[in-house]
Structure formats: structure tokens, C-alpha cells
């Protein structure tokens, strides 16, 4: 998952970008599901996470090297910053 600290007054725009994107995830072997999660609100941001589930770590890694990944991430950002800093990637593997 990637965590984003979205500027409070940019939440609607941030969500619109995610809801309107062409993700190409369904074209990838091993893709299971995707969720955009909204978390707590702080004084200067709202925490969001893009959460994707893959069958295997190798399937996820193939996605990150794919043409579909480049297409999905090629959309130009808005004219103003939507979030503070860079997204923070957090990878997890199933234990049980």
C-alpha cells in the first residue's frame, strides 16, 4: 500500500483523480483487489492509503515493471500539490 498525506482542501480533487483513473490492474496476472482508503484527518492533512492485494509478491513486482504500471501512473498531476511529501510505500506479506 501507499500512504498519502492529502492537503485538507484537496481531498475531493485527490479522490476524483483516483476514481477517474484507468488503473490497468485487471490486466495483470495475480491482481486480486484494490481499495482507496480514507483515514483520519489532522490539522494539515487527511491520511489516505491505496491498498492493492496480489496473489504473490512476484505478481506485484511484475506489475511495478510493466507497461500497464507506466500507463496507470502517467497521468499528469494537477497544477497544485494535492499531498504533502511523497507517498510512503508499505509492503506486507501474508503470515496467516
From TrEMBL:
Database matches in InterPro entries: ABM_dom, Dimeric_a/b-barrel, Heme-degrading_MO
Domain of life assignment: Bacteria
Keywords assigned by UniProt, alphabetized: Monooxygenase, Oxidoreductase
Disordered, as annotated region: 73-96
Domain ABM: 1-92
PANTHER family, alphabetized: SIGNAL TRANSDUCTION PROTEIN TRAP (PTHR34474:SF2)
Protein name: Heme-degrading monooxygenase HmoA
Lineage of the organism: Bacteria, Pseudomonadati, Pseudomonadota, Alphaproteobacteria, Hyphomicrobiales
Amino acid at each position: 500500500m501507499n500512504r498519502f498525506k492529502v492537503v485538507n482542501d484537496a481531498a475531493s480533487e485527490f479522490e476524483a483523480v483516483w476514481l477517474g483513473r484507468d488503473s490497468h490492474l485487471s490486466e495483470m496476472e495475480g491482481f486480486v483487489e484494490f481499495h482507496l482508503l480514507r483515514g483520519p484527518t489532522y490539522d494539515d492533512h487527511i491520511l489516505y492509503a491505496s491498498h492493492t492485494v496480489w496473489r504473490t509478491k512476484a505478481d506485484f513486482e511484475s506489475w511495478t515493471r510493466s507497461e500497464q504500471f507506466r500507463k496507470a501512473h502517467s497521468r499528469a498531476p494537477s497544477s497544485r500539490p494535492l499531498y504533502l511529501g511523497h507517498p510512503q510505500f508499505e509492503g506486507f506479506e501474508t503470515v496467516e
